[in-house]
Write a structure and sequence with these properties.
Blueprint: H1 2-15, H2 17-45, E1 57-64, E2 72-74, H3 81-88, E3 92-108, E4 111-121, H4 125-128, E5 133-135, E6 147-151, H5 152-159, E7 168-173, E8 176-186, E9 199-202, H6 204-207, E10 223-228, H7 234-238, H8 241-248, E11 257-263, H9 264-267, E12 274-276, H10 286-313, H11 319-327, H12 332-369, H13 383-408, H14 412-416, H15 428-460, E13 470-474, H16 477-481, H17 483-490, E14 496-502, E15 512-518, E16 523-532, H18 537-540, E17 545-548, H19 558-561, E18 562-566, H20 567-572, E19 583-586, E20 595-601, E21 616-619, E22 628-633, H21 638-652, E23 661-662, H22 663-670, H23 672-706, H24 708-716, H25 721-755, H26 766-792, H27 796-800
Parallel strand pairs: 2-12, 4-9, 6-8, 16-21, 18-20
Antiparallel strand pairs: 1-2, 1-10, 1-11, 3-4, 3-10, 5-8, 6-9, 7-8, 13-22, 13-23, 14-22, 15-16, 15-19, 17-20, 18-21, 19-20
Helix pairs in contact: 1-2, 1-12, 2-10, 2-12, 2-23, 10-13, 10-15, 10-23, 12-13, 15-23, 15-25, 15-26, 17-21, 23-26, 25-26
Organism: Splendidivirga corallicola
Transmembrane segments: 21-41, 291-310, 344-364, 384-407, 428-452, 680-700, 732-752, 764-786
Keywords: Cell membrane, Membrane, Transmembrane, Transmembrane helix
Amino acid sequence: MLKSYLKITIRNLNRNKVYSFINIFSLAIGMAACLVIYLFISNELSFDAFHSKKDNIYRLDEVQSFPGTNTQKVALSMPGMGPNLASEFPEVKSYARFWGHGGRLYSYGDKEIMVDKTAMVDSTFLKIFDFELLHGDRNTMLDLPNSIVLTEELSMAFFNTVDAIDKELVYMDGDTPVNLKITGVLKNVPDNSHLQFDMLASMSTITSQNPEFNNRWGSNFLVTYLLLENNTDIPALESKFPDFMVSHMNEDINDYYKLYLQALEDVHLGSVDMDHDYHNWREFDGSYVKVFFIMAIFVLIIASVNFMNLSTARSTARSKEVGLRKSIGANKSQIINQFLGESVILTFIALILALIIAGLFIPYLNEMAGRNLTLLSLTTNSLVPLFIVMISLIIGILSGSYPAFFIASFQPGAVLKGRIQGLGKKSVLRNVLVVGQFAVAIALIIGTIFAIRQLHFMQNKDIGFDKDQIVLVPLSRGANDKFETMKTELLRKQGVKGVTAAGQRIGNNFHQWGFKVKTDTAVNDITVSNVNVEYDYLSVYDIELKDGRAFSKEHGADAGYSFIINETLERELDLTDNAIGKTVGHGWYHNDTLGTIIGVAKDFNFNSLHHKINTLVISLHPEWGYDEMSVKVSPENMSETIEEIRATWTTLVDDRPFEYHFLDQHFETLYASDKQMSKVATMIAILAIIIACLGLFGLASITTEQRIKEIGVRKVLGASVIQLFSVLSRNFIILVLIAFVIAVPVTIYFIRSWLENFAYKTNISFEVFLFAGGLSMVVALVTISFKIIRTARLNPVDSLKEE
């Protein structure tokens, strides 16, 4: 019996090649989309999942609410928090702090390597986190001062071996060499870890010299992780934090700080609303994961609907086969099993094709989304292939169930007399399914257009400064010492248009600290964003002044005692058009030694457009040094100009190799998550409309075949091809219009919700909806026009000769 069913299935596939192709290919596209999106989602969800204690690890975060600045979430904490929480709360089993130090130059003999990602951590770090160890004792390797742990790649770079225990690296602390002993080597940090590092140094290096470090409060500059006891009541523990803060700081501290715990599994996908989150590799918006999942399911539903629609619509062509089978003794269950079996076979053929399509598409997705996905990931968990097979089986049964039961209900006598006409063009279920298909496809198109518009808006909005052709060069202590000489030399280069420096990179948000403002009656303390800049910062970045002047070496008091504020702070202080000359200063300045406001800069977006512009003070402290040099270059002969910058650096600086980045590339990374969402959503929307159109083409083909004699009669009576096209396409046009009406309000609701994630957003303009509806209508008409016009041009004699 099974052999007979298989033969019949193959025979029908061969006899109806077009419909079989549409059925299988559209389902394969839907399955391929689901497979690819599953790989993408599972990769995002896998972040930090390799740690055995992951369910009990939490990151300590803060909500900061200071007068004079926006309320913000930060992933930073104070050095004293971890040790004191562990000692005072039995729920806290252990803690580990992660203090990122950025790039440093290390040497071994004559070999020097710039290590980009270094961090100082507590000895408990590798007991809480399960980064795989190659050499060393996990329990003791970070106990002693000046102990370091390398990754496999860094060990190979220095020593050409991973067995580097007891070897020493050296770095220069000013003019003093510091020897660091290697006590362990780790495997390279997995790509799905939110913490990325090349080297770990023991926190005891600091605490042994400064025991009070573990009780330091007030400054947030490191990340604290807590290992909690099993089944800890998180809300109950968080409710104790206000009293904890008061006991270590002051009575009013809870007006400014609120501590809360973030589960490790939420760090990667749940931190996009953080203002200061510097150690979160490839941070991604978790809401996009849900969007991708829903979109993938919709695409699969559309493909399954195609299968059901086409199978049902083709039922009339197989009615005599069913009638004959019943007349020779086949019962209803056998007919149902036969057609369900055919449906399942087609589904598994589609699955094989889907795996091929997914395999071909994954490299493109990896390039588009910056991932390293592979089909082999499906086999890492033995349950996944089984799950895919089960889902395919369910799709086959569900998609084929209605056609199977419908066909099995034919009465053999009526069928063999030619009285069964099938569902025909008036099928309510089929029309509902077509409407559902196109409603989903139109909604995906509209959503994708708005995602692209929002991304374009963010990338092209006037952010108040010039970010193009800015080369960023990290500065070392030696480079700061030679900065003035280097600036003078660089400005002599033809391709260099300007040189400046700053303590922080624009686009990363700026740190907040205290600021004093003197009024007629008192000196008020507020907290604002601050950035320490070099004299030409405003001119190089083309930041406009609303009032006042820029920094100048002609004014000796500018260094340390002159300040430029932005318009937002001017409004916050209620000093509109009256700010110049006001007495202000840093929070640690004595009230009798404050400086003055010399300028008001027009607002510029020094953070991403996800956040509103915050209050800002721009100050000038050359003695502090700078973290990064900014060189504005001409777009002509840029590579030659960069080589000239490199040569100047190499001549003057000996404590750090030359490195550079472009500022506009940095801003690209700020919107990487949104850009990836836009690209993936575009891909899914295109697939959805392709699948829906394949189904529409199949239905148009079947409909015109079922109405072939009607078309012949109409032509004999004088109907033109245009008139016939109008008659045959009317029903499809109505269905697409209904789908559009359904899709619009639903899409508006979700778009508005999504745009709330942005402080600056594009408008919801109705022309986008009209464009999407018009596009869908045109695509639908083009899809069915070929078959309808071809049928309408047939000679009526051929279609009526049997009558």
